[in-house]
Amino acid sequence: MTLPDDTPYPPPPPALSGWPQPHAEPYAQAPRRESHGRDPRQAPYGHDIPQDSPYGYDVFSYEPYEPYGQAARREPSPPETDRHGGDLAALRSAYRVLRRVSTLTALGSFVVYVVLSCCAPDLMGSKITGELSLGMALGVLQLVVTFAAVLWYGRSAQRSVDPLARAVRERAVRRPAQEAGVAR
Amino acid sequence: MNDFGTGTQTVVLVLFTTLVTLTLLMCVMAGPERDDLTNFYTGYRSLTPLKNGLAIAGDYISAATVLSTTGIIALAGYDGYVLAVSTALSLVLLMFLLAEPLRNAGSFTMGDVLARNMPGRATRIASCAVTLSATLPFLVVQLSGAGSLLTFILGIPHLAGARTTCIVLVGSLMIIYAALGGMRGTALIQMIKIVLLLGTSGTVAVLVLNRFDWSPDDVLRAAQHGSGAGPAFFQQGLQLGTSALDRLDFASLQITVILGAACLPHITMRLYSARDVPAVRRSMSWAVGTVTTFCLLVIIMGTGAAALVGSRYITAADPHGRTSVLMLSRALGGGTGSVGTTVLYAAMAGTVFITLLSSVAGMTLAAASSLAHDLFAHAVRRGRAAPRTEMTVAAWTSVAVGTVAIALSTLAQDWDVAVLTTLSICIGASAVAPALTYSLFWRGFTRTGLLASLYGGAACALVLMVFSKAVSGTPSAVFPNADFGWFPMQSTGLVSVPFGYLAGWLGSRLEHRRRAADGLETRRLYEESEARLLAAAE
Q1: Do B534 and A132 make contact, defined as CB atoms within 8 angstroms?
Q2: Angle CA(A107)–CA(A110)–CA(A114) in degrees, nearest 5?
Q3: What is the predicted ipTM?
Q4: Smallest CA–CA distance from B374 into chain A, residue
Q5: Measured between alpha carbons, how far is B401 from B175 in angstroms, rounded to an integer?
Q6: In Å, how far are A106, B72, B140, B172, B413 from B145, measured between CA atoms?
Q7: How far apart (Å, rounded) are the C-alpha atoms in residues B56 and B98?
Q8: Number of cross-chain residue pairs from A and B with Cβ atoms under 8 Å apart
């Protein structure tokens, strides 16, 4: 299922040797469970889980069975939950910063380019060298800069987002480990 | 039309047959087991990032992109350059904004992403309807173009019968690829296609530059001369005009492309087949790199076509210039009948053919998957369909979608339906993009808001398009002799994109006010799934 990649990425963290193997289960299996694994499993387990079961955190609990109080479910391990929430908040804001900076730069530069092309055709049509006009040069420059932008995005995401995501994931795997074993 | 010897045509025909045989064989061999949904929809997520990236790029660069963009550059110069830039940047935007949360939220289709915190049949039906309305026009425009393109390539006289035969042939192949190959089979074809495409385009671009002794100045001067437009060739305005409204129209079209082109369901669907978040990031890096390289090559090829073929000959063959890339490869090879011409023309024709086949197959697969997974398995059977049944249904919906597309394309082949490409992208930007961005990033988004942005955005784009200048009232419109338009633009994005976002926001506010409990429930589901959305944790 998780065939070894030709270029392993990111470098396997020391704690999880042989990375996309057993520990990566949430990655590898998440969507499959969500799709058709849901029905056979949720009929028996979904309704029988005690309210304080950590299973309640599982994502596929969105099936419209009766909403047991969310607060009750959060009770069992407050410190753990808080730390989990803290990690998640940090991850959320890290993603938000990354997303806003990268998207606004890409979209903004292009919108400025289009607006300039439309509103200042003389400026964009002015020759900079030989027959090459400013507008054409800017257009080609945007394409060339794209390569650098993509590299930059990959680096930043690896640095700012991936460690936080890994922390959130590990906590989520560790917490319902016993319960998930039963459910599976 | 096509004035060279039977030798070239024989080579082209042999090449086509070989390509079809090889890809069919590979597609069937890579195809999924009969009862394995994950394999059919995502190919087990076993593709390496490089391969998946090439497949994304292959899906993204459709035949319409290759042929129309080159044509627009050859005929309108600067406007085409901007289009090439916006095409490349659209995928960049998808990578930066949506790719990672989409991978975590979805499993097979867009409906899975949206139903994550708004379960229910209405969500599934709406996402299926919008998927169909965004992919079918794109499919029809390419299939109906396939008729005239293949008759042009093979030098068959322009007869309705010949074109219909070509459409049916390409359509049947497309159904076979989609139904038998599934995600994995089509990924393989997309990879072959993108490698061929980059190879031939690179060769043609190098030959163009070589013809002018690697002097960009000479190419640009020759292009100005060949286009007959002079310095205006390097200023905005040749495509749509230079009045204030035309310029606004142009800006609106470009921004619609950057927002909508990469959101189309057949492209986002490829993201779900990445194994994890780093893998999707790397896949997208490869895809963006490939697409950007290709856009640079398209700029060179389009300018070369203007310089070496000349706009008079290009418009004589096709008013939109869609055959310019083929004419360029013929002009570059040397004299008529020479070995160079035969090889280069055959290579370009084969590339265009496989591009056409793979892009229509990808779109058919996306539409069929949505029908089978969203409409049949979740809306009709309420998620109780057996995997084996769903697989069978998916195969048959591929046949159904393909048949409908063939029928529509045959009907539309005598009309100038290039406007349908714009319609697809407008629906992508005004319905799909708002629904996805709200659903992924706004916890206050509700079901009413979702339905409002999906149906509202799509309907707004559709209605405005029908009454736009591109459909009636101008010589280049679909109905040049009728005039029932009141929307004075060629594309609808300027109005329909804000409308889609506004509808989603208003719908959500309304639901929060009227039925606070439902709104809170949706918010709770969003927060519960946030760990999975951001970190792929469960």
Answers
A1: no
A2: 135
A3: 0.89
A4: A35
A5: 8
A6: 33, 16, 8, 15, 7
A7: 14
A8: 234
In whole angstroms, what is the distance from residue B294 CA to residue B304 CA?
Answer: 15
Q: Chain B closest CA to A78's CA: distance in Å?
A: 16
Predicted model pTM: 0.84
With bands split at pLDDT 50, 70 and 90, how would you rate the model's confidence at A83?
low
**Burial state string for B349-362 with b = 16 or more CB within 10 A and e = fewer than 16:** bbbbbbbbbbbbbb
Please report how many Cα atoms fall inside a 13 Å half-sphere around the Cα of residue B49, on the Cβ side: 19
Instruction: Indicate the average pLDDT of chain A.
Output: 65
* B309-B312-B316-B322 Cα dihedral, nearest 10 degrees: 50
Lowest mean pLDDT of B143-147, B331-335, B448-452, B481-485, name the range: B331-335
Phi, psi for residue B272 in degrees, rounded to 5:
-70, -15
Residue B322, token pair as written in the block: 């869609």
Residues 379-398 of B with CB under 8 A from A: 383-385, 387, 390
Q: Any residues with CB less than 8 A from the CB of B38 and at least 6 apart, and which?
A: A32, B44, B45
Q: What is the DSSP letter of B262?
A: G
- pLDDT value for A176: 61
From chain A, pick out residues whose CB is under 8 angstroms from the CB of B523.
Answer: none
Report the greatest alpha carbon distance in chain B: 75
Which residues have CB under 8 Å from A178's CB, separation 6+? none
Give domain limits for chain A.
Answer: 22-76, 79-171
> Under CATH, what is the fold of the domain B6-535?
Hydantoin permease (1.10.4160)
Query: Any CB–CB contact under 8 A between B37 and chain A?
Result: yes
How distant, in Å, are the alpha carbons of A36, B198, B257, B327 from that of B295?
A: 40, 10, 14, 19
